[in-house]
Amino acid sequence: MLRKAIIALVLLAMAGYAGYQQFTKDKLVKQTIQAEEAMATAGPEIGKPAPDFELQALDGSKVKLSALKGKKVILNFWATWCPPCKEEMPDMQKYYTAHQNDVVIVAVNYTVSERANGQEKVRTFASENGLTFPILLDTQSTVSNTYKVISLPTSYFVDEKGIVRQKYIGPMSEAFMEQTIKNMQ
Q: What's the whole-model pTM score?
């Protein structure tokens, strides 16, 4: 009898522990999802004007976002050391080559993260990869901070009126850019 009571008590304890484990696991998953959603929504609000900025491009010219009104803009935040950024660059170049008359790709390099000779690293990377779209240098991280960029690459799709239409975190494919721009019409 005592033996049956001990077995029942052990089984009850095991069931309670399993329930506790499942509860804490579900709670952790929920917290993780909430954190990811918060990260994805941080930065300029969809449907609101994109914050204006002016940065120097690799070629020495100045580029101001508000000067691009009238064209659709893909605003991409990236770094040369970032593997997903490197992955998306060939597709970004293909898309830009095919659509540069109606879509501008502006690649904002998170230059403060490039360490020594950051601008030269960016210049070499652009040359070696045949990049012809404007590459801007965020040497003080002011634009990256304004756009609340926490993960690279991060891209914003801005319509002809300067309104943010979509935010995307991760490497983009040419097909993704094509579809996203098409959906902005």
A: 0.78
